[in-house]
Specification:
This protein is α/β, with parallel strands linked by helices. The protein has helices spanning about 45-55, 80-85, 100, 110-120, 125-140, 145, 155-170, 185-205, 215-220, 240-245, 250-255, 330-345, and strands spanning about 5-15, 20-30, 35-40, 60-70, 75, 90-95, 175-180, 205-210, 225-230, 230-240, 305-310, 315. The strands form two sheets. The chain has an eight-stranded mixed β-sheet, sandwiched between helices. The protein is globular, with a radius of gyration of 21 Å.
Amino acid sequence: MDKILEVKNLHIHFNAFAGQVKAIRGVNFHLNRGETLAIVGESGSGKSVTTKAITRILPENAVIDSGEIWYEGQNLLDMSDKEFTKIRGNDISLIFQDPLSALDPVMKIGKQITETLVIKQKMSYEQAKKRALELMDAVGIPEPQKRFNEYPFQFSGGMRQRIVIAIALACNPKLLICDEPTTALDVTIQSQILELIKKIQKEHNLSVIFITHDLGVVANMSDRVYVMYAGKIVEEGTVQDIFYEPRHPYTWSLLASMPNLDTNGDDKLMVIPGTPPNMLYPPKGDAFAARNRYAMKIDYLREPPMFKISDTHYAATWLLHPNAPKMEIPDYLQERIKQQLEEAKNYNG
């Protein structure tokens, strides 16, 4: 398939008072043209840092130690800031998770959309306003002519996120990065925003990277999935691979901790024991070993390579080594995951 983006052996650290925080430790992945890819994992796993490296909006204390980010035959990390400015916003756009902080609270909505078009597309104000109204209508803003002159505080959370999407789409990008775009919204509005992104992706043949910790969103949105832990990809595969044949213990735990559709406030969710490792001092072996009830001695000594399960499915766990004890997903986890998948299937119709 035609790759639009490929990240190769990316290493990033943050300079902190206590030392260097190894945030990204050799990440490799690719995105095909027109595909929706999900990157999942707990907070702090490195999901957002990876995408911020792609869009070059890392904080000042971040250092890219090594790696390559190829977009349509160009290594983005070799570009000057001036060269990359032509790509960010035009070819690659980003939707942030908090629409309130993504929008300027003292600038009218219309100006925030037209500003992008005037600067990036060199449109006249009249052309930009016409396009902005079209975008507002396309993302489902009622009475765009009237709301064009309103401020962000006059919009609901869901409507603000639609405006953020309109801004991201203003320059007809080829690659859209969605960084937890529904986190701050209630469940009903989340569903509407996800359906809107799916509709736009299909209409414009967009390539989409979806960053999330919500595996329910992944099942509904994605073609392929990368599971991240402690700055590394630990499992990759199609949605079918990850949901029906997960092979990494961390992926088992993520799936098992998903709430059921009928989960209420009194129910206890399954949790992953322990805490993620301190990335000031990354562990010597498998970073998940201390939280993995199936860990072996080698997990504490050597980092596992990526083992091939099929042409589409890979996982970095010593449990897949030919000499390892035969270990399938535990029955209680299998039953839990099966129940959730069935419920999700019924819920989605």
